[in-house]
């Protein structure tokens, strides 16, 4: 345990030599999915998507949301997260504070993977909720767009969990969001990479959310 903590302290000191925003370009070297480009590509899609979600949700924090979306994945290029993958997002929040970012932006980075599993807590703030919805929706649309569709008990990319997480967040925040418009906005960002037609993707996405919403309501 002492050795692991010593390693962690070393990684922490090394990582602090760069500000979090200076790590964003390194995301181009990290693959998201073979057919969906790099993590930097995903980061750019999130930055394009969050203003739309802010508008539909009636939330006035576009500038902060774009900043949080830009930095949300930056800790994936740190030595700490490379060694301790479970700390992704959490370390990003701490590094954001040390880089001089606003506390609200740092908390959104920490929260944007939530809920990560059944029973996990939801994002604690509005800004984190926006980034979380954008991140999960981009993964759902992207995976389905390239044909990675959950079937039976098979769901290797956790798309059902992501869909349920989005529903829980939207209900928790009390947002009145157009499902169709939000999906359309996300779909426009991956259309050139998709191998399925737009209508086919939307049908699979609608089915996914319908089943998760049904499950959620039965549980209630």
Provide an overview of this structure.
The protein is mostly helical. Helix content is about 60%, strand content about 0%. Helix 3 (about 60-70) crosses helix 6, helix 7 packs antiparallel against helix 8 and helix 7 crosses helix 10 (about 200-220). The N and C termini lie far apart (about 40 Å).
Summarize the structure.
By secondary structure, this protein is mainly alpha-helical.
Q: What is the end-to-end distance? A: 42 Å
User: Helical region count?
Assistant: 10
Radius of gyration: 17 Å
The percent of residues in helical segments reads 55-70%
Q: How is the biggest beta sheet arranged?
A: 2 strands, antiparallel
- The computed structural class is mainly alpha
Strand residue content: under 5%
What key attributes describe this structure?
single chain, 220 residues, mainly alpha, two-stranded antiparallel ribbon, 2 strands, 61% helix
């Amino acid at each position: 345990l002492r050795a692991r903590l010593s390693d962690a302290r070393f990684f922490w000191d090394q990582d602090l030599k760069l500000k979090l925003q200076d790590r964003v370009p390194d995301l181009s070297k990290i693959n998201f999915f073979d057919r969906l480009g790099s993590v930097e590509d995903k980061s750019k899609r999130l930055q394009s998507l969050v203003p739309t979600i802010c508008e539909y949700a009636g939330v006035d924090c576009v500038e902060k949301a774009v900043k949080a979306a830009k930095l949300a994945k930056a800790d994936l290029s740190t030595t700490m997260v490379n060694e301790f993958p479970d700390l992704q997002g959490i370390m990003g929040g701490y590094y954001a504070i040390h880089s001089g970012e606003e506390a609200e932006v740092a908390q959104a980075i920490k929260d944007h993977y939530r809920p990560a599993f059944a029973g996990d807590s939801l994002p604690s703030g509005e800004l984190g909720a926006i980034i979380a919805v954008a991140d999960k929706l981009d993964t759902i649309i992207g995976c389905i767009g390239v044909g990675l569709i959950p079937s039976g008990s098979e769901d290797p990319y956790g798309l059902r969990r992501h869909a349920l997480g989005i529903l829980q967040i939207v209900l928790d925040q009390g947002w009145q969001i157009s499902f169709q418009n939000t999906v359309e906005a996300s779909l426009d960002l991956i259309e050139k990479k998709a191998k399925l037609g737009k209508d086919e993707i939307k049908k699979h996405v609608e089915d996914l959310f319908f089943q998760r919403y049904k499950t959620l309501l039965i549980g209630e």
